[in-house]
Design a protein that fits this description.
This protein is mainly α. It has five helices and no strands. Helices cover about 75% and strands about 0% of the residues. Helix 2 crosses helix 3 (about 45-65), helix 3 (about 45-65) runs antiparallel to helix 4 and helix 3 runs parallel beside helix 5 (about 90-115).
């Protein structure tokens, strides 16, 4: 049985050789990153991790929220993306924006969970 630590680099080589993109951490395609904020997220594992966490929570909240609340959640997400863009490449600003957005989405999820069971 192959050792897991050896398998990961091998998978990256297989994906690259097959013309498939390597696994990336950000929730968006870093190869298409144009803006300073996007490039900064792609260049930083910490920011990339925050991006993936936020995107995952947003996806869950979007599926659980009622239609009206879903629209508000999407509006807030667009506002977040504008705020993130205004940070440019400032990592501290980006981390703060992600932290605030994650807290906001968690509040939405807590509100939904409090009305359970499902």
């Amino acid at each position: 049985m192959p050792r897991p630590l050896l398998a990961l680099p091998l998978l990256a080589v297989i994906f690259t050789c097959a013309g498939l993109p390597a696994v990336q951490a950000a929730s968006f395609d870093c190869a298409r990153a144009q803006a300073a904020d996007e490039k900064a997220v792609c260049a930083s594992m910490a920011l990339s991790d925050l991006d993936v966490r936020m995107a995952t929570l947003f996806e869950v909240a979007s599926h659980l929220a009622a239609m009206g609340q879903r629209g508000l959640l999407q509006d807030d997400q667009r506002a977040f993306l504008k705020e993130r863009a205004s940070c440019g490449a400032d990592a501290a600003c980006l981390a703060g924006a992600y932290d605030a957005r994650i807290r906001a989405i968690n509040r939405v999820l807590q509100s939904i969970y409090s009305r359970g069971p499902f």
